[in-house]
Design goal:
Layout: H1 2-17, E1 25-29, E2 45-51, E3 57-64, E4 75-81, E5 85-86, H2 93-97, H3 102-107, H4 109-116, E6 119-123, E7 126-130, H5 136-139, E8 146-150, H6 166-180, E9 183-193, H7 195-206, E10 213-217, E11 222-225, E12 228-231, E13 240-246, H8 250-253, H9 261-272, E14 279-282, E15 288-293, E16 302-307, H10 328-338
Parallel strand pairs: 4-6, 4-9, 9-10, 10-13, 13-16
Antiparallel strand pairs: 1-2, 2-3, 3-6, 5-8, 7-8, 11-12, 14-15, 15-16
């Protein structure tokens, strides 16, 4: 019995310290991720892999393959990045990953993948010590507040982040998708909500040689730490951007602890070399304002949808925003389809 317990402990230690030195799929859970969701086909798969550049780590992701995929022709890949979750014992988020894919349930993006024939992958975050929006906002000093699940954007100097390399994880995940599936290399995209939107901005900047376009929903290109605002790095290549922000979502829209909506959009307009004079469209109701910057390098565009009265939600999803005049899913895919990598 003692030897058996020792063996189990050693196996757990190897997994947690990620002793496997190469990237590769370890475990596959083939189960219905959203059997309570009437809107989606519900055939996503939870997988694990070794990833990370600075520290190799066991990482997990959900993947959804459309019924039309047979491997005979290259298909687009969309990376859909999760929002932020605090850890608590009443709702142990890591266990939830084994039951459901939250972003798939909330955004219903797998349904769009089934309709249009692209593969969508949902990377999961790792647990970290979060300094939250506590005293460090004013002092710049470490103040651990709680455990949480969020991404390392690769530009904020949180001490806990140095043990996580999410940019490396996404880079390895793309390589894994291209290895396992017939992926169109000119049609690799990233979207995300809230914390995932911030990560989508960062992925677009860090991996601008790979990512054709991004579609952040309620996110920002920068975050304040103490008295300093830290930003995503300057991309080496142009990347088309489609952003959504609710006017009433003041944290993300106006910018105090994060870069404002105008600052986020201006960053990409300037980087892509777009026409600085935008085309502005206002819906008949006046609730939707679309601002489009065209003629960027590599045929890129930067588009911002502002939702008057909009809150911190995914536009048009059936759970908490069914009456929105626009569907983020429809607009995101329409934008991605029109903007391959040049």
């Amino acid at each position: 019995m003692r030897n058996k317990l020792v063996g189990i402990f050693v196996c757990m230690l190897l997994i947690t310290t990620c002793a496997v030195p190469v990237m590769g799929e370890l475990i596959t859970f083939k189960k219905t991720s959203n059997n309570t969701n009437p809107f989606s086909s519900g055939n996503s798969t939870l997988k694990f892999m070794i990833a990370g550049k600075e520290l190799r780590a066991l990482r997990s992701y959900w993947i959804h393959i459309p019924p039309s995929y047979d491997g005979s022709k290259p298909v687009p890949l969309v990376i859909d990045l999760n929002c932020y979750f605090e850890f608590n014992f009443q709702f142990p988020y890591p266990l939830y990953h084994f039951k459901n894919n939250y972003m798939e349930l909330y955004t219903l993006f797998s349904q769009k993948a089934d309709q249009e024939g692209f593969i969508v992958v949902y990377p999961n975050q790792k647990l970290k010590i979060d300094t939250g929006f506590g005293p460090w906002d004013k002092t710049g000093k470490l103040f651990p507040v709680y455990l949480a699940y969020g991404y390392d954007y690769g530009f904020i100097p949180y001490w806990s982040y140095k043990f996580i390399d999410d940019i490396g994880f996404i880079q390895d995940l793309i390589a894994k998708m291209k290895q396992d599936y017939n992926i169109n290399s000119s049609r690799i995209y990233a979207t995300g909500f809230s914390d995932g939107a911030r990560m989508a901005y960062s992925v677009g900047a860090h991996l601008s040689d790979t990512i054709a376009a991004i579609a952040p929903v309620d996110g920002s290109i920068g975050t304040r730490y103490g008295e300093t605002m830290y930003y995503i790095p300057t991309p080496k290549n142009p990347v088309s951007v489609l952003a959504f922000l609710g006017i009433e979502d003041e944290f993300w829209y106006n910018g105090t602890y994060v870069a404002s909506a105008n600052e986020s959009i201006s960053f990409w307009v300037e980087h892509n070399g777009c026409n600085p004079t935008p085309e502005i469209y206002t819906s008949e109701s006046g609730k939707i304002i679309r601002t489009t910057y065209t003629n960027g390098n590599g045929r890129t565009e930067v588009v911002l949808y502002e939702i008057i009265g909009g809150q911190h939600v995914w536009p048009g999803n059936p759970w908490d925003n069914p009456d929105c005049e626009i569907s983020a899913n429809d607009l995101i895919w329409e934008f991605f389809e029109a903007h391959p990598k040049q």
